[in-house]
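Show me any protein, keeping tokens residue-aligned.
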Amino acid sequence: MFLKFLLLTCISFSAGAEILIKPNTVTIVGETHGHPESYKLFQSLIKGYRKNNTCLTVALEINSNQQSVIDSGKVSDIEISSIIDHPAFRNLIDDLIAQKNNGACLKLLAIDGAGDDIDMRRDAWMAINLAKADKPILALLGNMHTLKKVVWSNTTGLPFVAGILNKQVKSYPQLGLSTECAKPLSWRFVPANTPEALELLNKHTFSLLNADEPDSAISVVDGVIVWECSV
């Protein structure tokens, strides 16, 4: 029974590292928008989790006002921000809708709040949508939204999605996707309790923020997926 529970709640990567998907929590996988590799990895996580026909809510960084369009299955009609939109992203959505139509226990959820029709900060809106949705949830959001703790250098900084939900969330940014290689990129999992995870976070995320660099990655994320040139 215990082994069955592990199979239902974990997606195993390599060398014993795991992305945990627990029944009553939210798992956020970060991405650098416009890179097909991140969508393929996300698809593999869904496929791995659903091997046991377990139900899953998949949350995407699409305006909530597009939920009815997603539910209709008309992928080409979905309005997606130009920053996020990519053929591979739409292929991901199309694949998830096809799985759902074929009987998979999947829910697709548009959680973003960008636009004049929502009088709330995007991260707050997304956090509310994730908090009230059926669990477990696997979300694909921009990398910054995966940060649970940010010590801002000014007094106007506000928390990202993972920081708002905090203990309800497991978060894993995908870093290094912009690396230029002669060969295809490959990925590996870096545990949060390692110096490398901290170095990657500071280089790829905190260097872009008006915030103090953390001394440890443990309170910021639950692990890092790093993309690098294949050997």
